[in-house]
Design goal:
The complex is a heterodimer.
Chain A (H helix, E strand, L loop, with lengths): L3 E12 L2 E12 L3 E5 L6 H8 L7 E6 L2 E2 L4 H5 L2 E4 L11 H9 L7 H10 L15 H13 L5 E5 L7 H18 L2 E6 L2 H7 L2 E6 L2 E7 L9 E9 L1 H12 L4 E3 L2 E7 L3 H10 L3 E7 L3 H10 L6
Parallel strand pairs in A: 3-8, 3-9, 6-7, 7-8
Antiparallel strand pairs in A: 1-2, 1-4, 4-5, 9-10, 11-13, 11-14, 12-13
Helix pairs in contact in A: 4-5
Chain B lengths: L1 H15 L2 H23 L14 H13 L14 H10 L8 H7 L4 H22 L2 H4 L6 H35 L7 E6 L2 E6 H30 L2 H21 L10 H4 L17 H25 L6
Antiparallel strand pairs in B: 1-2
Helix pairs in contact in B: 1-8, 2-8, 3-4, 5-8, 6-8, 6-9, 6-10, 8-9, 9-10, 9-12
Classes of the chains: A alpha/beta, B mainly alpha.
The complex binds adenosine-5'-triphosphate (ATP) and magnesium ion.
């Protein structure tokens, strides 16, 4: 595996008597997108605040590119860009001035570099407008722009898709993937929505009540050979059932009018066209939860908020 | 050091891009102009005439005799009622001047209170607003120490206060010249200190009055800055500071006969009392006041620094 750009070592946080983060221990490598997944109140934001030095750790340390956040904050934070919770900007200044403001706080950022990031996030037409007039999506983009100004090795985004519409989410996702694969940036994203994380992350750390429960490697979501569980609603049910058994050669379960069977993803279109050929009317077809989702829900317990 | 200048530039950029900054400046400008116009129209405020003819000594002498006989009824120069001052002028050959730009600049010093108010607003907002806007999270995740960021904010507050004082001084001078004229850049000013008459060059005297007035301003701004850094709340910092500024002298008067009253901040903030007029407490010297002010100042700064640099940014 490539270089560990960030190492968490027994990171703990106690506020009052409550232990909010309990000894987190994991590494983040360059070029990967690491998902930080957990239900509301699990401690994602708290961990991120400690990564960027907004909160002090009660115990443990975080090492970024060899520099300790506790001992050598300036050197460590040089390599980090981020948005903590919402992308907050000075609403009375233009997007451009907001970027100039942050550029002055870091060494050697030229005007050209600011133009570059503005273009990267696609804000060039609106950059002279006051940030207060931006939509949430535009503020997210401006937030990412300020995080990228100094070409960080680690990009930390707390709930980057929060409040975005589906196309906005898709764009951010593509963008994050590009940064990781092309620029070798390690990206840490937090979320409580698994499906979203599965689509953009290489690895997912699941956190609950301040504890890291497990780290899962996400197989390529489009992996063709992985067997998926598929449910189909079609009439006539009997004909469909027999046909499915013939096509897949495996067992099919029936629950009222819904039939469930297992098949490799790449074979789904073939199955559908064969069914149609047999005169079956298909009303709906669903690919069910992946194994990871099952695991996640098992691990955290559905809907439980701490 | 270089990035310190950048930080101050940032603070100024944020100030200048906020409407409130311009509204405050406009209020100051309008009030100075309005008070000039008012003085021009209502000339009882400006002391009407001065004996500026060639035989001014004789006229003042006659007026003094009149005053000593208690014939206050219809004296010629209502602006020169003080027998001792008149005597001092005659003896030292200091010819009275009619109301001019310098007198207006000296009177405009009342607006230093307004500058204090604005500086308090700026000092309270400069840190607390970052928490309110949530931008503190983007500000503190840079390779710059929190101390430096705080100090740059403080220096920006001071430069704001000085800029406003310069605006006040220069504007008053310009308004004064256009409305009341100017007898010359040099003029001798006669004043009483602790009952003894003295003279000084009008320019340096006025400038030092402004500078001394800014002491209270800076103390109150530093106080507001501290409250904002501790509570991270703009309104609380503004409210508390303005309340104390208004109530300051009443607080001192209330505790007047206590031994420790002279250690109250507000018993020492008015350094002008050592130059013109009579000190509030007998026996306190300018050295004593400066020491007390320094102690308060250091406490305000240390508390601001400790709270700003050591505390977690959790809620914002
Ligand atoms: N300043 C604080 N004082 C006390 N408790 C806090 C503080 N900040 C956070 N907590 C607690 O720490 C826990 C973790 O909060 P955190 O904001 O890190 O969760 P999260 O995983 O980001 O949740 P969400 O998905 O809702 O954003 C919560 O139980 C919260 O109540
Ligand atoms: Mg959160």
């Amino acid at each position: 595996m490539s270089e560990a750009v960030m190492q968490l070592k027994n990171v703990s946080k106690t506020i009052g008597k409550k232990e909010i983060i309990k000894g987190l221990d994991f590494n983040i490598y360059s070029g990967e997108v690491f998902g930080f997944l957990g239900p509301n109140g699990a401690g994602k934001t708290t961990t991120i605040r400690m990564m960027v030095g907004l909160m002090k750790m009660s115990d443990g340390d975080i090492i970024i590119k060899g520099h300790s956040v506790n001992e050598d904050f300036k050197q460590a934070i040089c390599h980090v860009g981020g948005i903590v919770e919402n992308p907050e900007m000075y609403p009375f200044m233009s997007g451009w001035k907001n970027l100039v403001h942050y550029s002055r706080m870091m060494p050697d950022i030229t005007k050209e570099r600011i133009h570059e990031v503005v273009q990267l996030v696609g804000l060039e037409n609106r950059i002279k407008e006051k940030a207060g007039k931006y939509s949430l999506g535009m503020r997210q983009r401006l937030g990412i722009a300020q995080a990228l100004l100094h070409k960080p090795s680690v990009l930390i985004l707390d709930e980057p898709t929060n409040g975005l519409d589906p196309s906005g989410i898709r764009e951010i996702r593509a963008y994050i993937r590009k940064l990781a694969s092309e620029e070798g940036v390690a990206v840490i994203v937090s979320s409580h929505i698994l499906s979203e994380m599965e689509m953009m992350c290489d690895r997912i750390g699941i956190i609950k009540s301040g504890e890291l429960i497990s780290i899962q490697t996400v197989q390529d979501a489009l992996q063709e050979t992985e067997e998926k569980e598929v449910s189909i609603e079609a009439v006539p049910v009997d004909v469909t059932m027999t046909a499915l058994k013939d096509i897949t050669g495996k067992s099919v379960t029936r629950e009222q009018d819904i039939l469930t069977f297992a098949v490799e993803r790449e074979k789904i279109p073939g199955v559908v066209s064969k069914l149609v050929h047999k005169g079956v009317h298909i009303y709906s077809i669903n690919v069910n939860r992946s194994t990871l989702e099952d695991k996640f829900l098992d691990l955290i317990g559905e809907g439980s908020i701490e | 050091m270089n990035n310190f200048v950048q930080l101050v530039r940032n603070e100024w950029m944020k100030l200048l891009n906020q409407k409130a900054t311009w509204i405050m400046a406009a209020i100051l400008v309008l009030l100075v102009i309005a008070s000039g116009v008012l003085f021009k129209i209502d000339d009882t405020a400006t002391g009407v005439d001065a004996p500026t003819g060639d035989n001014w000594k004789q006229e003042l002498q006659e007026q003094n005799e009149q005053l000593q006989k208690q014939e206050v009824g219809d004296i010629q120069y209502p602006g020169y009622r003080n027998v001792e001052e008149n005597q001092y002028r005659i003896e030292n050959d200091i010819k009275p001047t009619s109301y001019n730009a310098w007198d207006f600049v000296r009177q405009s010093r009342v607006f230093v209170a307004l500058v204090s108010l604005f500086t308090i607003i700026v000092a309270a907002g400069i840190t607390a607003n970052e928490f309110r806007w949530g931008t503190i999270k983007l500000l503190l995740i840079r390779p710059i120490s929190r101390s430096k960021i705080l100090f740059a904010k403080y220096v920006s507050v001071l430069t704001y206060a000085w800029a406003m004082l310069v605006v006040l001084f220069v504007l008053s001078f310009i308004v004064g010249i256009s409305l009341f004229g100017l007898d010359g850049m040099t003029e001798v000013y006669v004043y009483a200190q602790d009952g003894v008459y003295q003279q000084a060059d009008i320019f340096s005297f006025t400038v030092s009055q402004y500078v001394l007035s800014s002491v209270e301003l800076i103390m109150m701004a530093t106080f507001a800055f501290m409250i904002a850094a501790v509570f991270r709340n703009t309104s609380l910092a503004i409210g508390l500071s303005i309340f104390l500024m208004m109530a300051g002298s009443s607080i001192v008067v209330f505790f007047m006969n206590k031994d420790w009253a002279k250690y109250i901040l507000f018993a020492n903030t008015d350094l002008n009392q050592f130059i013109e007029g009579t000190p509030m407490f007998s026996g306190i010297t300018i050295g004593f006041s400066i020491t007390i002010l320094a102690v308060y100042y250091i406490v305000f700064m240390v508390v601001s620094w400790v709270f700003f640099t050591k505390r977690d940014v959790a809620g914002a």
